[in-house]
Amino acid sequence: MTTTTVSPLDEVKTGPWDGGKSPFSIEYGKIMMWFFLVSDAFTFSAFLIYYGTQRFSRVSWPDPDQVFQSIPGITDHGAPLIFVGIMTFILIMSSVTMVLAVEAGHRGSKKEVVNWMIWTILGGAVFLGCQALEWTHLFHEGYNWGSIPESYKGVDVIGAQQFANLFFTITGFHGFHVFSGVIINIIILFMTMGNVFEKRGTYLMVEKVGLYWHFVDLVWVFVFTFFYLV
Amino acid sequence: MATEHTQEHEGHEEHASMSKKKIWTVFFYLLGITAIEFFIALVLIPKGLLNQGIGNFIYIVLTLVKAYYIVAYFMHLKFEKLAFKTGIIISLIFIIYFIVLMLTEGSYLYVHTNK
Fold it and tell me: A-B interface: how many C-beta pairs under 8 angstroms?
């Protein structure tokens, strides 16, 4: 047996940043999903910050307690913020079922993944339905891109108009994200049912979609605060 | 190599810590915080027990707490490697900068366009 002494310079380095392995130890697709979400966070912040700028620059702004008073199908007035509360609850709930799907994926339990994915898709679909109802109600009241109710009593009419424009643009953009999320979730559900991940040996794809879905929930947390509460 | 193995091992244990119980705990935190926000919006402010300005400050703090729970636990960022966490979080500085910039601009417009 021969022993070779290697000088410190020639020793093979094995640290996380010395090459040959992922220093973050996250799979490529998952990192890319994170990077996409960071860029999407910038888009949503740009929208919300512009909303803030407009609001700071106007003399008066519509009071959300006054604007959001209806529960479609039950009452047109007198229930401030209740309906959006229900929507928020539904979206948080569907986020929870998504984590449960990811958790079931870690254990490789196909049946549970399918079950939780169905609940997540249902939650997303119900949220979209609620949003459609809320939009319809606001349209009937006279809010739209470029129009506000004639009965609007605030001082600053341009402020109210900006509120309407930004409300539909931002919740619309968020709703579009929810919609794409539901479509992607449905694709993943079918892939799970078709044993794609079982054959692949990992349910990593569920995690990646989960990241996107939680991000949509995260954006809603901010939209909810700045449009309905502040 | 030995140290790396222990690190990986720890990582897996943290992974396992995101159990069903932990998920539901985080859910109840999120639900509780939202309930507090509604309590402020529907009871405290209308009854005049809380000034709207302070209310807004509390809303934003609570929103950031909710965001922390979603990103850290649901999106699992808390259990990723430090370098990755830093990379994601640091880029958000641009958002903070943009907020400061644009709200200053908004206040300027408030003074100069509403004469």
Answer: 132
- Measured between alpha carbons, how far is A90 from A77 in angstroms, rounded to an integer? 22
A110, A196 in Cβ contact below 8 A?
no
Residue A205 CA to its chain's centroid (Å) = 17
- State how far residue A148 is from chain B, nearest Cα, in angstroms: 20
Q: What is the ipTM of this complex?
A: 0.89
State the best of A57, A65, A87, A155 to mutate against chain B, taking most chain B CBs within 10 Å: A57
Which tokens belong to A78?
Answer: 């007198």
Q: Chain B residue closest to A34 (CA)?
A: B88
The tens digit of pLDDT for each residue in A100-142 reads 999 999 999 999 999 999 999 999 999 999 999 999 999 999 9
- pLDDT, tens digit, for every residue of B55-82? 999 999 999 999 999 999 999 999 999 9
pTM of the predicted protein model: 0.89
* Helix or strand (DSSP H, E) at A215: helix A204-223
Phi/psi region, residue A70 (left: phi>0; alpha: psi -120 to 50; beta: rest), is beta
